[in-house]
């Protein structure tokens, strides 16, 4: 599916509702977006489950009461998760702690650029080659700024980086590389 060149965009969070995964920071960041940002957002889909469920449900209810297009879903099976990626224009990774998240490689394989916190390997992964927008800080404020920057631009500008990253996560390419060592 080709990347969109202009808003409105669909944003996706797919992960555990746990402090390390930063879903609470995501909700705070969404509350900080201004109306011009929300005009560029068609929907935010929050999928998963975990120990922060009551905080997530409460935060989503607050955003929806304010008229924001936020959809809450539970855990998704593999097929439903793939469908969610295919609907999304941006994947949200607001993690406080991370290395190379599986959800990142899934996004790359399905052509979905990423908005992420600057933790673990994510700064390197998003920069070389460029495949998304990196928050300036691991905070709700930084993540809100990164979302704002992403939705003001074109997801399509990251298509070359997404295509280049496919080789990084292609099992056949990795196997050939290892066999040559």
Automatic annotation (TrEMBL):
SUPFAM superfamilies: UDP-Glycosyltransferase/glycogen phosphorylase (SSF53756). Gene3D superfamilies: Glycogen Phosphorylase B. Pfam families: Glyco_trans_1_4. One of its GO terms (molecular function) is transferase activity. Keywords: Transferase. It comes from the Bacteria. The keyword Methyltransferase does not apply. This is Glycosyltransferase. It comes from Luteimonas salinisoli.
